[in-house]
Design goal:
The protein has six helices and 17 strands. The radius of gyration is 19 Å and the shape is globular. By secondary structure, it is α/β, with parallel strands linked by helices. It has an eight-stranded mixed β-sheet. The protein has a five-stranded mixed β-sheet with strand order 2-3-4-5-6, with no helix packed on it. It has a two-stranded antiparallel sheet with strand order 7-8. It has two domains: 71 residues, Immunoglobulin-like (Sandwich); 192 residues, 3-Layer(aba) Sandwich (Rossmann fold).
């Protein structure tokens, strides 16, 4: 498992009975997590010192209960700064477990960026965690997401991280249609990141269901990789999509075309109360021939 263990401003304090207790900077949040199927004693005093609690409804969805939480605040990860705010469906605008992937591709970019321009494409890019990490490492980044609000939020994260003037192209677009247009244009990228949702809709109501679409989309996106591409990263939070499935798909697309090495694993966050690790999805990493 790849574990995001270098955080200072974030931690999973404890988890029990379908919820995880987290510290986001100075604030304690309690949010649902479907992976937490165990019932363990809630001994940590932070269980009783919450700043915000997202209550899941039995009929679907849910709502926040705020005790003492600002509308927006920020946390740091190494040289990066992220703006947070609680919004619908329990989220805060950041997936901290992805820091382990930021460090991975950031290292690859830093090794090569002094020698040549590195172009990175971030698809389903959300609030731009991977975008700012790649830009900070020295890449020229194209950020694509179907939500105008998420792209605006990502821009704010770039500014907060000292990247206001970084070479980042911000696009509100359907990712599939954007990739199709880029292929027709003949554009190429040295690194591709994708964090596709399990289910979603594009700006014009286009339906996306991961299990039905992901393999053909990987095939399509492979056509955008440059001959000397550095990396390809795909993340999955869909329970049924095991790391080995990701490896199989990327092996039959990216590796088949470019060679290189592919490896997939779970990603996770350390739990400070007991030293165990909370699983948080899976990632597949392809590294090109250097």
């Amino acid at each position: 498992m790849w574990i995001a263990s270098d955080w200072k401003d974030y931690e999973v304090i404890d988890c029990s009975e379908g919820e995880k207790l987290e510290r986001w900077g100075d604030y304690i949040l309690l949010r649902p997590d479907p992976q937490v199927i165990w019932n363990t004693p809630k001994k940590n005093p932070s269980w009783k010192k919450l700043n915000g609690h997202y209550h899941r409804s039995k009929s679907g969805g849910g709502e926040w209960e705020f005790m003492n939480l600002p509308q927006q605040w920020s946390i740091n990860y190494k040289e990066l700064t992220f703006n947070l705010k609680p919004f619908s469906f329990k989220h805060t605008g950041l997936f901290p477990e992805q820091a382990v992937n930021w460090d991975w591709f950031g290292g690859l970019i830093k090794d090569v960026a002094p020698k040549r321009e590195i172009k990175v494409l971030n698809l389903f890019a959300y609030t731009g965690g991977a975008t700012v990490a790649a830009a900070k490492a020295g890449a020229k980044v194209t950020h694509v997401d179907a939500s105008k609000g998420m792209v605006t939020w990502a821009k704010e994260n770039a500014v907060s991280s000292g990247l206001a003037d970084a070479p980042i192209r911000w696009l509100v677009d359907d990712c599939v249609k954007f990739v199709e247009r880029e292929i027709r244009r003949g554009n190429k990228y040295d690194g591709i990141i994708m964090d596709p949702p399990s289910y979603g809709r594009g700006p014009k109501g286009e339906i996306w269901k991961l299990e039905d679409k992901i393999y053909s989309f990987i095939e399509l996106t492979t056509k955008l990789l440059s001959e000397d591409a550095l990396f390809f990263l795909i993340n999955s939070y869909t329970t049924g999509l095991a790391p080995s499935v990701l490896t199989y798909m990327v092996s039959n697309t990216v590796v088949k075309e470019f060679g290189g090495k592919v490896v997939s694993d779970e990603i996770g966050l350390p739990v400070s109360e007991n030293g165990l690790v909370l699983p948080c999805g899976a990632s597949c990493r392809w590294t090109g021939k250097k």
